[in-house]
Write a structure and sequence with these properties.
This protein is of the alpha/beta class. Helix content is 37%, strand content 13%. Helix 3 links the parallel strand 3 and strand 4.
């Protein structure tokens, strides 16, 4: 008997599993079994990438057809997660996400001026919570509903510099044989979507915002499922 198809949702290490609270009911209503990785407890692990992959492996039944969806900074971890899941029927979806950078670290993948900015933000080996990286007004614009904003910003982690400086390994066979999809939600990720297209990913675009899974979950559900059907 074939194991139940699973949609595995992976939030950015800078955020929490609340990223998916609005989207999950829409996916379940469409008939999906949904599993949500919680990266918040894993950011203190000695090796973050390995901890994420181990958590992913136990979230999906062995051999189950699987769709792995990663948002924002979860993108570079998706190859490792794909290999950990190891399904023969595997789709990997980058949702307004960074692309993989095997062989280098998060900070090492950045342009020099951005890497310097990140290093200067760190205090005692830790990055401040993501909501402090920008003016408060920009988050008000991104999440105009105060209830959604409180939910999204509650419990954000202060990432250890170990997470930012960890070099990610080269992917294996499951990643290489998977279907790769890129869904662009915001203008800030236009160039990333273009890079994904050059790499052969199936790309779909919407003029929305980086947290559209929170603010427009029905639209994101339709976009995601239509891309998978294609």
């Amino acid at each position: 008997m074939l194991a139940e198809p699973t949609m595995l949702l992976v939030h950015s290490p800078l955020l929490t599993r609340a990223t998916w609270d609005a989207l999950r009911p829409h996916l379940e209503a469409a008939g999906w079994r949904v599993a949500v990785l919680d990266l918040r407890p894993l950011v203190e692990a000695p090796y973050f990438h390995a901890a994420v992959c181990a958590a992913a492996a136990v979230s999906v039944a062995p051999g189950a057809p699987t769709v792995v969806v990663g948002h924002s900074r979860a993108g570079p971890y998706l190859p490792g997660i794909a290999d950990a899941v190891g399904s023969d029927r595997l789709d990997v979806v980058f949702l307004d996400a960074r692309l993989p950078h095997p062989g280098t670290s998060w900070v090492g993948s950045l342009p020099p001026e951005r890497a310097t900015w990140l290093r200067e933000m760190a205090v005692s080996g830790r990055l401040p919570t993501w909501d402090t990286w920008f003016p408060a007004s920009s988050l008000d614009d991104l999440l105009p509903d105060s209830g959604q904003r409180r939910q999204m910003l509650h419990g954000l982690p202060e990432l250890s510099w170990k997470v930012v400086s960890e070099v990610l390994p080269a992917p294996g066979g499951a990643w290489e044989s998977a279907s790769h999809v890129y869904l662009q939600l915001s203008a800030a990720y236009q160039s990333t979507a273009e890079q994904a297209e050059e790499c052969g990913y199936r790309v779909r675009r919407r003029d929305a915002d980086h947290l559209a899974m929170v603010t427009q979950p029905a639209m994101v559900t339709d976009l995601l499922l239509s891309a998978l059907r294609a």
